[in-house]
Design a protein that fits this description.
Blueprint lengths: L7 E4 H6 L1 H9 L4 E5 L2 E6 L27 H14 L2
């Protein structure tokens, strides 16, 4: 983005009806601020730029490490168990 240039702001209506303009702004490596009722809900960042946080720094990465290593099938069987055994 050039100095003095304002970042694009898009409302929910713009996302719905003017998505092509939003995509063109992203192609120009501009960030797009998404607004809902005048308040910022998020920022769309072009995929070519680096995110401010790496995946491993994200708080949800590895959140189940402390949980035991049960298989998905065993976990689903445990969740479904009571529903059929009550009949």
């Amino acid at each position: 983005m050039k100095q003095g240039e304002m970042p694009m702001k898009a409302s929910i209506i713009d996302l719905r009806y003017k998505m092509n303009d939003v995509l063109k702004a992203l192609d120009r490596n501009e960030q797009v601020t998404v607004l809902y009722r005048g308040k910022i809900k998020g920022i769309l960042v072009p995929s070519g730029t680096k995110a401010s946080m790496g995946m491993k720094e994200h708080p949800f990465f590895g959140m189940f490490k402390a949980v035991d290593e049960t298989s998905v099938e065993a976990e689903m069987a445990a969740l479904r168990g009571g529903r059929y055994s009550d009949l």
